[in-house]
Input
Amino acid sequence: MIAVQPAVITAGLRMFDHLTREVALELVHAEVFDAGSVVLHRRVLPT
Amino acid sequence: MMSTLNNRIANAQGTFWEPFHWGEPEVAYVNQFYRAADTWALSRVLYDVIIPWWNGVASGQLPTDAPEITPAFAEFAQIQHRMTKVVFSNTMEPADGRVLIRGDLTGQLAQLKQEQGANIILSCGPATLGPLASTPGLSTST
Output
């Protein structure tokens, strides 16, 4: 799950900074909350 | 067995930055994923920040900074308390309900994934996540 929050930030750690290969994802479900967050559930596609 | 990557916003110092509401509906939604898992693999830093606090909630000894414990929060506390914690650490010692992984995280998590059991939830920072997420077949969802 990745929770997307309604903000753009100027600095910080990047979640996938250390990937060593491309990873293809497929959206399983997106849950939108009234407070503004979106939780994305994605399946990793075999490559 | 499947594994799930789970990340929250961290600031440049590696600590949580949570200016946003994360309440009952959000926790109730996330609980379904934890309910389907029996193991939580996480880095030492996240373990220290998360687990003692939630264990306090689970045992009824509320941390001094605890907000109102809603039903979803109380359920999460119990769910996580039942889970085996697999901690990535070179210095921590094993304990009840806590398994240590040192060295080859990818290989040891792959071996853990082959064992009988429910889902594994993974929580860690980018430096750990990158190699794990880059390993074909290790993570099945994110």
